[in-house]
Amino acid sequence: GSAVALNGEGSGGKGSPFPNYGATGLMNLGNSCYINSALQCMVYLPMLRSYILSGQYLSNLNSENPLGTGGKILLEFAELTKQMWAGKYANKAPQRFRGALSKARNKYATTEQQDAQEFLADMLDALHEDSNKVKKKPMVPPLDDDWVEKTALHRVGLEAWRRYLRRDRSVIASTIMGQTLNRVTCPVCHHTSTSFDPFSMLSVPVPAFEKMMVRCKILRRATSLNCPRALCIQSLVRPKQDLDTFSKSDLESDIDMDLDADPDAAPPSAILEQYIVEVSRLSEIGVLKASLAEMCGISAGALLLCEAETTPTPSEGAAFIRQNPFVTYIPVNEARPCAELSQLGNEGAEGSQGDDPDGMVIELMAFELTLKEWPSVQVFAQDLINGSFSTKSLNGMDLEDARFLLEKQLYGHRKECRRFDLRPERIINMMSKCLWPRTTADFRRGLRIEYLGDRNQKLPGTVIDVLVNEDNPDKTKVLVHFDHLASKWAEKFTLDDFLQKKIAPLYTKVTPRAIPIEGTLYHRHSGHYFGNTSFLHFHNEWSMARAGAHIMAQAARFLHEDQSTSGGHWIATCQRALGKAIDIILDIDKAYVDRVLRDCDDKFVYKKPNDQIKKSTYDASSLNDLLEKKMTEIFTFLPFCN
Asked: pLDDT tens for residues 419-434?
C-alpha cells in the first residue's frame, strides 16, 4: 500500500522498475496507508483498469447523480490509475485524489486511521454512482412472493438482477457486483421468504480449525450472599442508636448473617469463577456470551465481556506491585467472530499448548453488572406496560403516585445496596418539587432540574452555583450544568425562568436514561497502579452518598478473609467496618430524603401542580456534619483509607 520510492527518489521520482506492471508505490499522506492499500487492489482489477485506461469512463460519466460525487471521485481515480500505469514513476503522492476524497467524504478528511474494507466499500459505491448509466432511476416493484414460490430459482435470480440493472447499471455492477440468495423462515407459520440482494464484496473468514476453547473468568457483583460479613443483612429495621453510637467493639464481634438465597442467585461463596467453553470459530462472540450466561446463571445482558491489556510493571515501588502487574480490560465487540479472539495475544498465555492450534485456550474476563433492580419494581413496571392496573386496584391513585410510593417504601430498605439497587427517578422528581424555589432566597446548589427550551429541547441538569446579587437580591441567578454536556455549555437562569416554567423539576417531561453510568475501579499504592481493574455501575439519579455506599459494597469483593494467616483477624475487622460505613451512609441518605419529603402528601402528589406541593425548608447541613463525624470515626478501620 504505502510504498517508499524504489529508486530512492522522492514523490514523482522517475523510473518504475517494472514499467508494464503498474509498479508505482503510493506515499503515505498521514495515516493514509489504509487508502493506499485499497487503491493498489483496485488498480489491479483487470476489467476496471482497462475501462479506465481506454477512456471509456468519459462517455459514462454521471455528474448529475445525487447519490454520487458529481463525477469527481471517478475522474481523480482515473487520473491516478493512468499515472500508476504510465511506467514513469516509482512512487506518487496521491494528493489530488486525497483532496477530492476529503471533499466528497468528510470522514476521510482527517489524518486518523480508518478501516480499509470500509474505505474500499465507499470507493466502489462512489465509482458505481459516478459511472451509473441510468440518469433517472425508475420505480421498480419487488418480486411477487407467489411468483417466486412457483418459479425456478435460477429464473428468480435472473429476474432480480434484471430489475436491479433498471436502476443501477455501471462498470462496477458489470464487473464486480453479484447477488446473494437469502431465505427467511417464520418459526410460527413456517412460511419461507426468498430474495436476492446485490453485493460488491464478501467477508470470508479462513479459520485454521473449526472449534476453539475459551477460558473465561467471571467477577460477580458483591452481595450479602458472597460477602456475608461486610454486607450482612441484620434486622428489618436498624435501631436508631446505630447513627448515634459507635465503638470498636462493634467491629470485633460476630454478627448474624442473612444467607437466604434468591431464586436466581449464585452460590453464596461465588465471587470469582472460571468457565471453559468450546465454541465455533465462525460464531459471533455474542454466542459465546450466551453460552457463558447459561452456565453461570447470569443473564447475558448483565455480563460485560472483556479482553485483557497488561501494562509494563514499574521497576520501582513495593514488591507486591511488581508481583501484581497492572491489567486493564477492554470490552469486546460482540458482533465480531470468535476467530478474531485468537488475535488478542493470548497464544502464550497459561493454558496454551505451544504451537499446536488445537490446544490453544483463549483467555477472557467477564464482569457482572453491579446493579440489580428490585423484583417488585420490575413486576410493577411490567404491569404498567401490560396495562394490568385499574383505578380500583390502585385505590384511586395515579400510576405515577403508586410508583413513587413504592420507591419511597424501598428507599433505604435493609436489602438496598446488598441485594438490590433502586432507581429513584420518581423520588428525585418529588424532591425537586419539594425544594422548588418560590423566591431567590430558595435557590440552592444540587437542585436537579430540566430545561424546556425552544424547538422542543428537554435537557436535564443540576444547579452548580448560586450567583448572589448583593445590590438587588431579586436579580440573583443560578448556574446550571447540563448532563452529558461540557462545562462550557452551562447557562445562567433567573427566578422568572423558574416561574415561567422554562425550568421545571427533573423528569417532568424528560425521560430517564435506561443505561446506567459505568466507571472503572483501579487499585493504586504509592502512586502506582497494580492488579486487575474492574467495572462499577451507578444509577443516574443516585446521590453522591448512595454512590459511595455502592463503591464500598463492591470493594468488599477484594477483602479475602483467611484466618490461617496473621492478617485474617485484621481483614475480618475491615469487613465489619465496611458494613458499618455502608449502614451509616445509607441511613443518613435515607434520613435526608425522608426529611425533604416529610411535608408531601402520601397520595395524589403527582396530580398537583408544582406550586401546590408543600415546600420543604429542611437544611441538610446537620446531616452532613453527622455523616462527616461518623465516617471520620470509622475511617481508621477501612483498608483503603489508611
From this structure: 899 999 889 988 898 8
